[in-house]
């Protein structure tokens, strides 16, 4: 029987499979117009809530003490000109027209760009060395490149490399570990700033919305009301997170649509009523006049102006929930024109009221006609909540990606929707965000400091995206290096100007995202470092397969009934913790499975490509290795269902004949090489049925006809004590040939073992620094990493394992 081809466990599919030509998810597929318009409508509530509420605080932040009011309108028109061109160049030109095309199988965000680069160049340091053992150079090659390598298609490889300078850039990344670390640090910095934005955006959005009370209350009294109301709204916002966005999702889009229509109509009213000629500010000449007149004050005010693009990164980060066209339609047809009209309307009002200094400080609500101010205030608070919800959900997704790739301690992840896998809830992160939000709101009590902090976080993420995109243009799109250089120079210069204006306000609130990023970065680096050292110890101290094959009954080793499932980080060899277990307890199960769960740097791995199965040693030993691969956006299966699929993948591996090893002097040739040939086992080819039955019943081995399926059943020997238990049957595909006796015997033994039960052997490794290590190393390993390990969740597969079926083995790793 033909064996499936051996594959690299880090690759999502072997060359030549349908995955080679598989399109991205929704990012690349052509959807019907009705579905695209429906997605565009939904994206208004999920993606654009933050961006659409920015008019609440942009002018207030821009004129916060950096620009003195005067009798002319040059400053007002200059700010409007900067807002217009910033909205046009960054969200519209950069994100909508360029960045959205750089999706990773339909997914977006900082880590999506990083994983895209890692698959087009061998520059990956994630996951933390898992599976990246010596000689595994092709683990992140894209499928087209692997196929070209096998077929000798040189032209395909030249197209992949882009030729000339692009190939030089790729070789430079592949040869220098320092550049690979810089690339990883860039991705982590962007991620940490997104998390920081998840703290700052709810605070500034809700506080700015509530600040409308300032107009209807006496002087100084509003300060005693705004902060408590903002805190109550924030507590309610975070307390409702566990319900999931899908329960209130149908309300989100209408709220944002009503808000956008509201601010655009107010803008049109102000333009017509106060200053119809405000459109002159759309000329870039007014930016030059603004900077020439205000000089240093105008440059510092750019830190407030950049808040007009806060939330733009959400267009790319939430790409996985929609598609490119839907996000582009929503922004260009609804969001962009509404925001431009809103900003023009505010500028038109201020042009006739610039003498009143307090009008600069109050911001948006002063330009709202008095008759509709209270309804607008209510809509603004709802819109701020929606915008905050989107950023919080994005933060959860980012933490999930970091956890999946080994860069963040394991946390509890709850999926709040059965249909949309991206909608998740992380309790620990939710309450941490709430505490930090409340602390910032109570501590700062104004939008000036919150705006300075939020601006620095936003512009840092955009700078990181620009840097990574320049590499994507060369390595993934195979464009000229001059085009990439032009991209980073044009957008990088604009963003660097805003970045410098934000950084200069370090003591006025901009220190907050830096401190938050430093804390999260330290957590990520410490966890990543400790995980790497732990994996390296496993790799260096793994036991050869020959040691396992050399275990004989003379040493007192016995095999007990059942399946023993051993989790390991290694995808070859025997982990040291198993030898430690056998040395102290000389027995293991009749069927032994070494399971390795890998999180690959891809958003999704299809179920047909999830399980890789191989054999350790000769058939008679009944020892297997199973590698289970998940993408960073995949949902881990239910434990019982996962057990069934795992056992079915072993059964299919046995039936397919992929496990035939040639023996040489009683020891397999693969064992001599200390490695196994892994084969992809598609799920669903064999089904396993479990029925309640009595232990004393005996069923003859044979095949019965049910429909056209063939069933293999195990005899159920009567134990000394009659205990009810389950009977297990494997249902083979209808068209499958009758298995030969050796295969039937092995399947029968697997069935027997499954009926006897499955035991989980969980290793608990405690990492300690070696004697003589430096003080810094002992601090990081013995205290920081150990603290994170003790306060993090266990592996997903171990959370709901029955305690009666668990055997824990402890071992200390000295690294």
From TrEMBL:
- Would you tell me the Gene Ontology cellular component terms? membrane
Q: Which family does it belong to?
A: Belongs to the HAK/KUP transporter (TC 2.A.72.3) family.
Query: Which InterPro entries does the entry link to?
Result: K+_transporter, K_trans_C, K_trans_N
Instruction: Extract one GO molecular function annotation from the record.
Output: potassium ion transmembrane transporter activity
Q: What does this protein do?
A: Potassium transporter.
Superkingdom of source: Eukaryota
Residues of the region (Disordered) are 1-27
Domain K+ potassium transporter integral membrane intervals: 39-548
Q: Which organism is it from?
A: Zizania palustris (Northern wild rice)
| Segments crossing the lipid bilayer | 76-93, 178-196, 250-272, 297-317, 329-351, 372-392, 424-444, 456-475, 481-499, 511-530
* Annotated K+ potassium transporter C-terminal domain residues: 562-813
Topological relation to the membrane, as annotated: Multi-pass membrane protein
Q: Where is the composition biased (Pro residues)?
A: 1-17
Q: Could you tell me the keywords of this UniProt record?
A: Ion transport, Membrane, Potassium, Potassium transport, Transmembrane, Transmembrane helix, Transport
Q: Where in the cell is it found?
A: Membrane
What is the designated name of this protein?
Answer: Potassium transporter
């Amino acid at each position: 029987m033909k064996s499936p081809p051996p594959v690299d466990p880090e690759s999502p599919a072997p060359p030549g499979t349908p995955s080679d030509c598989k399109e991205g998810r929704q990012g690349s597929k052509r959807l019907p117009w009705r579905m695209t318009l429906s997605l565009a409508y939904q994206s208004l509530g999920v993606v654009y809530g933050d961006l659409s509420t920015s008019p609440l605080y942009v002018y207030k932040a821009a004129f916060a003490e950096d620009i003195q009011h005067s009798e002319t309108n040059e400053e007002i028109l200059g700010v409007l000109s900067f807002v217009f061109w910033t909205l046009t160049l960054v969200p519209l030109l950069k994100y909508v027209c360029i960045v959205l095309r750089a999706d990773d199988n339909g997914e977006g965000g900082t880590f999506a760009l990083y994983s895209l680069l890692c698959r087009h160049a061998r520059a990956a340091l994630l996951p933390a060395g898992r599976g990246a053992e010596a000689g595994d150079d092709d683990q992140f090659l894209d499928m087209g490149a692997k196929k070209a390598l096998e077929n000798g298609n040189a032209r395909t490889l030249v197209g992949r490399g882009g030729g000339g300078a692009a190939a030089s850039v790729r070789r430079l990344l592949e040869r220098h570990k320092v550049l690979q670390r810089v690339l990883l640090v860039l991705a982590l910095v962007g991620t940490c700033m997104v998390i920081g934005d998840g703290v700052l955006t709810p605070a500034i959005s809700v506080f700015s919305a509530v600040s409308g009370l300032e107009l209807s209350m006496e002087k100084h009294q509003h300060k005693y009301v705004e902060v408590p109301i903002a805190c109550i709204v924030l507590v309610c916002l975070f307390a409702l997170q566990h319900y999931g966005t899908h329960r209130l999702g149908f309300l989100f889009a209408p709220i944002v649509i009503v808000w956008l229509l509201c601010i655009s109509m107010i803008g049109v009213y102000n333009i017509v009523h106060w200053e119809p000629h405000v459109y002159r500010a759309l000329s870039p000449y007014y930016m030059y006049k603004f900077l020439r007149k205000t000089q240093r004050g105008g440059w510092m005010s750019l830190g407030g102006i950049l808040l007009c693009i806060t939330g733009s990164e959400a267009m790319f980060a939430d790409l996985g929930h929609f598609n490119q066209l839907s996000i582009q339609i929503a922004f260009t047809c609804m969001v962009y024109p509404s925001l431009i009209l809103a900003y023009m309307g505010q500028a038109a009002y201020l042009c006739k009221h610039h003498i009143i200094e307090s009008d600069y400080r109050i911001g948006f609500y002063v330009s709202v006609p008095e008759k509709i101010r209270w309804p607008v205030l209510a809509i603004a608070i709802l819109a701020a909540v929606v915008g905050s919800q989107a950023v919080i959900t994005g933060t959860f997704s980012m933490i999930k990606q970091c956890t999946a790739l080994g860069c963040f301690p394991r946390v509890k992840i709850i999926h709040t929707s059965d249909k949309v896998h991206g909608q998740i809830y992380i309790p620990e992160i939710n309450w941490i965000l709430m505490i930090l939000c409340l602390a910032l709101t109570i501590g700062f009590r104004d939008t000036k400091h919150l705006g300075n902090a939020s601006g620095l976080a936003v512009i840092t993420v955009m700078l990181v995206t620009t840097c990574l995109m320049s590499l994507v243009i060369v390595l993934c799109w195979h464009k000229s290096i001059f085009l990439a250089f032009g991209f980073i120079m044009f957008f990088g210069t604009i963003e660097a100007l805003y970045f410098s204006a934000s950084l200069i306000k370090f003591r006025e609130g901009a220190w907050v995202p830096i401190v938050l990023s430093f804390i999260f970065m330290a957590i990520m680096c410490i966890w990543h470092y400790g995980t790497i050292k732990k994996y390296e110890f496993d790799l260096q101290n793994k036991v050869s397969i020959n040691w396992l094959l050399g275990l004989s009954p003379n040493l007192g080793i016995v095999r007990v009934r059942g399946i023993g499932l051993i989790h390991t980080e290694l995808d070859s060899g025997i982990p040291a913790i198993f030898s430690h277990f056998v040395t102290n307890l000389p027995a293991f199960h009749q069927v032994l499975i070494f399971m390795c769960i890998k999180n690959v740097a891809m958003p999704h791995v299809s179920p047909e490509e999830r399980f890789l199965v191989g054999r350790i040693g000769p058939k008679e030993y009944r020892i297997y290795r199973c590698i289970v691969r998940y993408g960073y956006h995949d949902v881990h299966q239910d434990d019982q269902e996962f057990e069934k699929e795992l056992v079915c993948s072993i059964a299919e591996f046995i039936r397919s004949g992929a496990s035939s090893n040639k023996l040489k002097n009683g020891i397999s040739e693969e064992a001599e090489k200390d490695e196994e040939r892994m084969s992809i086992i598609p799920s669903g080819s064999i089904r396993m049925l479990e029925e309640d039955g009595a232990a004393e019943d005996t069923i003859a081995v044979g095949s019965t006809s049910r429909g056209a399926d063939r069933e293999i059943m195990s005899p159920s020997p009567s134990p000394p004590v009659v205990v009810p238990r389950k009977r297990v049957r494997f249902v083979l595909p209808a068209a499958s040939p009758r298995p030969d006796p050796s295969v039937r015997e092995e399947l029968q033994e697997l069935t027997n073992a499954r009926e006897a039960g499955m035991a989980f052997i969980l290793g608990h490794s405690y990492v300690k620094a070696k004697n003589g290590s430096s003080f810094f190393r002992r601090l990081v390993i013995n205290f920081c990493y150990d603290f994170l390990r003790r306060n993090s969740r266990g592996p997903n597969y171990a959370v709901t394992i029955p305690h009666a079926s668990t055997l824990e083995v402890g071992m200390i790793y000295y690294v």
